[in-house]
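# nightly structure sweep
# worker-07 picked up a monomer target from the shared queue
# config: single-sequence mode, recycle default, output format = structure tokens
# input follows
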Amino acid sequence: MVSLFLAAFVGLTLVAFGPALALVASVALFVALHTYFLPITYTLSRRGVEVDKRIFSYTYEWSRFRRWVRTSGGIVLSPFAQRTFLDNFRGVHLLLPADPSSVVAYLEARFAGPGRSDDAC
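# output follows
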């Protein structure tokens, strides 16, 4: 459904504004929505968390995070020691696989102690 909407939008842009702006619209939409169409890979290592979005790749060191929070859509790694409304904006959101037990066990071992949290954001 999303692909049909995007194709219709680019088609209308082609008709209304010409091929140059249709190409600009296509590139802008792809860059803005690449995480929707391309797979994202998360790697938890001794050094930190690597997020590979196929076009962009980010590495976050563990020293950046103080606690983690399990949400309905995954896990948020938060830079704050206490729960705050900024968790979702300053933290890193990781999507979980079908069986999240190994990821949760790793984070529990990594954040053992008072910094661990299961409160939903």
